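Q: what does this look like with magnesium ion bound?
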Amino acid sequence: MKIDHVKLYKMNMRMRNPFTTSFGTEQDRLFLLVEAIDEHGLSGWGECVTSERPLYSEEFTESSWYMLEKFLIPAVVKREIQHPKDLQELFAMYKRNNMAKSALEAAVWDLYAKSKGVPLAKLLGGVRSKIQVGISLGIEENTDRLLESIQEKVEEGYKRIKVKIKPGKDIDVLREIRANYPDIPLMADANSAYTLNDLAVLKAMDEFNLMMIEQPLTAGDLIDHAKLQKQLETPVCLDESIHSYEDARQAIELGSARIINMKVGRVGGLTQAKRIHDLCEKENVPLWCGGMLESGIGRAHNIAITTLENFNLPGDTASSSRYWEKDIIEPEVIVENGELHVPEKPGIGFDINMEEIERNTVKNKAFQ
Ligand SMILES: O=C(O)CCC(=O)C1=CC=C[C@@H](O)[C@@H]1C(=O)O
Ligand SMILES: [Mg+2]
């Protein structure tokens, strides 16, 4: 397969509601789409899950555009590629910038699957035709508002509720949720808002029977998380500390977490995601697929990877309508009773809505 040319689209899509975490609020999603086109004119699509500002990690949308334009796209254009895995080697000399690498790799995976006429999920080794879905709810000004959204999402059938917490918006909020919903599968995501000095607060969370507490300590940290996990009954789940296979291996070896949140962009693409999946499977570490407030294209890639055997906890691949008035794929992603049917068409399995893409594009460029 030859990548004839690549197109980059900078998108600006307004979410239906703002989303607040311990590090900030986001409503306008400025992200990139990558379209890889082969010598026969067939297209594959990928999404770069960065935000406008480097709040979640060091990458941001303009840095990824630069990375793709200057280094990554020139490494693949006009090149003969045997398999999407080849991109790992072509990108190896460039450090990190995982979301940019992942976006181009995703486009090539989709293109490769389409050229073979197989669904991406199958090509990755997926074994499920249906996946289980949870939902992630942002921090709200008042807990009543959060309880209303939980009620709505429980009624919609989502299989687990994740709430965002930060110092001062933690124990009391969780206590109120548990008072109203003693049995729902519940977890809390701190997005690195605590340190070991907050041990008492983190230990107090043991009383809420949480499925897990996600990334309580510094992004990138493994050592303090290992110390923390030893003192908690609640499983620690790592998100912002896992950027590679080596991070996952070390986290498991050190006991930094009992669960891993897989984000394809954060680990540099589907090839790495699959390697980490296989490691977790071997080591009996449960895995689930996190979200980055993706459009339908990134969501479709998340759905595909979630079909692998060891994705044994509900992921954050919620319905398109949770985020968007109108998504850029057809049909849109629909979760019913907390389950989603994996598409069976070749590649990502959804059609691309070019009209919606064009309507939300603020800049684009083709690279020959
Ligand atoms: O619904 C989703 O896509 C998940 C949303 C979500 O929880 C997150 C999105 C983006 C960055 C973080 O705030 C975060 C997370 O930490 O998992
Ligand atoms: Mg998280």
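The pocket of 164 (ligand 1) is lined by residues 21, 56, 136, 189, 191, 239, 290-293, 316, 318 (CB under 6 Å). The chain has two domains: 3-117+353-367, 122-351.
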